[in-house]
Structure prediction request, 329 residues.
Amino acid sequence: MSLDQFKVYVTRVIPQPGLDILNANLKHVKLNTADNILSREELLENIKGLDGLLSLLTERIDGEAMDAAGPQLKVVANHAVGFDNIDLPAATERGIMVTNTPGVLTDATSDFAWALLFATARRIADADKFTRALKYDGWGPMMYMGGDITGRTLGIVGAGRIGVAMAAKSVGFKMRVLYSDEFRNEKLEQEVGARKVAFEELLNESDFVSVHVPLLKSTHHLFNDDSFRMMKKTAYLINTSRGPVVDEAALVRALQTGEIAGAGIDVYEDEPKIHPELIKLDNAVLAPHIASATIETRGKMATMAASNLVAALKGERPDNLLNPEVLDD
Ligand code: GLV
Prediction:
């Protein structure tokens, strides 16, 4: 089948470099030009008859969606490194290739985790609101005191690409780095002097706990009432991974009761909803899932997702194939 015959759908406007790749290679590229998240009905309708789908993390691509597309669907190229929105076994069962965008957002995301860490410990968001409200009537020795960063202990939960980049950036702040992961990362130990510890020890000892695990059954609600109880009362939680890794109601309780000092949060348990009590808390800094949102990084993600999709339709092995088994038999 020639590439010209393939039908592709892009579920929302993505940066132009990605669209350029699709348009240069394919004749039938349909784009949801409305800048909004597709409803489930719209997704199931627009996916019909497709050969390739360029999806976002806001769409659930499960067996039902794949079946709505039809048996000709060859590839789902996710515009994200996380792919918990896609039922990978269902895709593999149907011989559909699934790809993601690893690597290109490692720095932007870890930079943002640092931005949240600073904003949270030094109360920048709250202080900004105060200043704009013209409440600043002169320097005060008790005003906006936060937590120290330099020389403190940073706990990295999940030593994958982003967790390791977060840890590496702590060197200038002379931090002690602990990490918890299934696997040992010798490079991290040698370069940053990080020490691998059990999750519980990390919670007990860290002044900042930064979460970098994928969302899996085993990481769902990894942070719950028990985990917050194990953290220091002066500690901060930073989450740029996936919302459901943290039990949001438990986080609210921990922030309300002073079980932890603060939290910098970019992802939510039931996005785009946010726990109504979390919004009221001054010791939380909240962002709308923007850790990878730099112009350059989002351009690279779009390029990568589009290149993966085109490669798959050309019958090549996409660079970021998550289920190589579909090509192996
Ligand atoms: C963003 O959350 C991503 O997974 O790329």
